[in-house]
Each structure stands twice: as structure tokens, then as C-alpha cells.
Specification:
The protein has 303 residues and is of the alpha/beta class. Helices cover 45% and strands 13% of the residues. It folds into 2 domains: 28-159 and 237-270, 2-enoyl-CoA Hydratase, Chain A, domain 1 (Alpha-Beta Complex); 161-236, no CATH class. The protein contains 9 helices and 11 strands. The chain has a 5-stranded parallel beta sheet with strand order 1-4-5-7-11, sandwiched between helices. A two-stranded antiparallel ribbon has the order 2-3.
């Protein structure tokens, strides 16, 4: 007669723990997949609607602090080579006679990537419009300069396009030679001074070529110098008013659809929102007045 053998309690507990682990892992993975695909589909639907409204190719280059991975680690993004490759592909697949609209919301990124996108946009025959709902700094501003028209929110800003060498502005590095004699500067810093001078010249020449599509050569060169020489700090806000003063074609007729798209890019990685507001109620009474209930039918005067 066979003898019944029961496994120890700790083995059963281990098996249950393993099963629970795999179940929880599967739920988390499915939740991540579902939660990421839903906003992506909504964004694509708005882009498709905007394309139909504008009869154009719409390309969104939007960088937020996104929540990624199972642990929800916030990661800030910027203009990368992968971005430029994707944008260039979209431009290449667009007929030459079809306008292109670029929605920009970015702190900037790699100079090479931004220059690739700007060069491709400048070469377009049809109209290129850049929409800036909040900000397009550094490389984002460089891309906006390539557009035939820049549409900004009245409070949106662009920024200078002076190159940065690591975390240091090229203009400030070059100025070091005015403050110190070369003998008093380390070899490493002298090398940085040389690199900074080259970078500043290269970017200034490129920006001047971009601006020459819409401005006379002398004005394009002067504006390119102002934007690249380090006259301002790298985060200096170029407002709508200042952009117009320096010769950029800027409009503030921002379509509502662009704001709808931005609503689908919430900031990630926050336990609670730092800004909170609620929708306005219709027919809000002034202080001291009695609220009046809305009438379901128009009033008919009595005789």
C-alpha cells in the first residue's frame, strides 16, 4: 500500500508566493501596455483631425518628463538622433506640394539632430508652419526658425540657439581669453576655448543660412549672430513681442486643436499635481448677488 507523502508547509508557501509574484507581474505589465496605448491612440486621432483641418502633414515633436518602466521613474527627454530620423522620414513621405505643420514643445537637444530637421524643412517648397503652444528652446527654436510662419501662444517663448559645450555656454568659454592670459589658463580649458569658438561659428553660419530663406542676407547674418554669440543666457525667453522685433514672422492664432493635443501629454512622475484648478461654472454671480437658476425656455413678455 502506497504511503501518502505531504510536502512541508514552507514548500507550499513558497509555491504560493511564486504564483502570486507571476500574477502580480502579469497584471503590472498588462496595465503598462494598456495605459500607454490608450493615450497614444488619442494623440493619433487628434493629429489626424488636425491634418484634415489644415490639409497638411502634421508632425508633433513634444518632450515631456514621462513616467517610464514598472517603477515609474521620471525621465526627461530632448531632441535626439532618433527624433531627427523619425521627423526626416515623415518629411520624406510628404508630397512636395503639401504643407507641413510642426508642433514644438521641447527644451532642445542635440545640435546635429535639430540642424538635420531644420535643413529638411528649409528645403521644402510648400509652406512650413511651426506651432509653439508653450516653449521651444535651443534646438526647438532652431527648428522653428526654419518655418515660413511661427504660431505662438501669446505667452509662449523661444530661446537663443547658442551652442553649449557640456554644461558651459560656448560664448562664455570664448570670453575667458579676454579675462585671462593664455598662460594662466589650463590646457583643458584652452582646448575647450578652441572647440567653443568653432562651435559658435558653425552654428552661426547654419542659422544665417536658415534665416536667409526669409530675410535679406545682411539681416539674416546679424540676427544669427545675436542668437548664437551668447548675448543672452541660454534660457533667456524670447517672447512674441521680442520675436517680432528681431524680424521673425510670428502669429498668435493658435488653433484649439493644438491645446487639445497638449492635454494628452501630462507631466509624469508626480505624486500629486503642483497646479490645480477647476472649470468655471456658467453664470457665476458677482459678490452679493443671488444665484439664478438657468431657464429651460426663453421668457415670454406678458401684456
Amino acid at each position: 500500500m502506497a504511503e501518502n507523502v505531504t510536502s512541508p508547509w514552507w514548500q507550499r508557501l513558497t509555491s504560493i508566493a511564486k504564483l502570486l509574484f507571476w500574477v502580480v507581474l502579469a497584471v503590472v505589465v498588462l496595465q503598462q501596455v494598456y495605459s500607454s496605448s490608450k493615450p497614444t491612440a488619442a494623440r493619433a486621432a487628434i493629429l489626424d483631425r488636425f491634418q484634415l483641418e489644415r490639409k497638411s502633414r502634421v508632425i508633433a515633436l513634444i518632450h515631456r518628463q514621462d513616467t517610464v518602466s514598472i517603477l515609474g521613474v521620471p525621465v526627461g527627454s530632448h531632441i535626439s538622433i532618433e527624433d531627427s530620423e523619425a521627423v526626416l522620414r515623415a518629411i520624406r513621405l510628404t508630397p512636395e506640394n503639401q504643407p507641413i505643420d510642426v508642433i514644438l514643445h521641447t527644451p532642445g537637444g542635440l545640435v546635429l539632430a535639430a540642424e538635420q530637421i531644420a535643413k529638411a524643412l528649409v528645403q521644402r517648397k510648400a509652406k512650413v508652419t511651426a506651432f509653439v503652444p508653450h516653449y521651444a528652446m535651443s534646438g526647438g527654436s532652431l527648428i522653428a526658425l526654419a518655418a515660413d510662419e511661427i504660431v505662438m501662444d501669446p505667452n509662449a517663448v523661444l530661446g537663443p540657439v547658442d551652442p553649449q559645450i557640456g554644461d558651459l555656454p560656448a560664448g562664455s568659454i570664448v570670453k575667458l581669453l579676454e579675462l585671462k592670459k593664455p598662460a594662466a589658463i589650463s590646457d583643458e580649458m584652452l582646448i575647450l576655448v578652441d572647440i567653443a569658438a568653432k562651435a559658435r561659428l558653425q552654428v552661426a553660419v547654419f542659422v544665417a543660412e536658415v534665416l536667409a530663406k526669409h530675410l535679406p542676407r545682411d539681416k539674416a547674418a546679424a540676427l544669427a549672430t545675436a542668437l548664437t554669440e551668447g548675448r543672452w543666457t541660454h534660457d533667456f525667453p524670447i517672447t512674441v513681442e521680442l520675436a517680432r522685433q528681431i524680424g521673425l514672422a510670428v502669429s498668435t492664432n493658435m488653433p484649439r486643436t493644438v491645446y487639445d493635443l497638449m492635454d494628452l501629454y501630462p507631466q509624469g512622475g508626480k505624486g500629486r499635481p503642483s497646479v490645480l484648478y477647476v472649470p468655471l461654472r456658467p453664470m457665476m454671480p458677482s459678490r452679493g448677488e443671488t444665484p439664478r437658476a438657468p431657464s429651460s425656455a426663453p421668457e415670454v413678455p406678458t401684456r
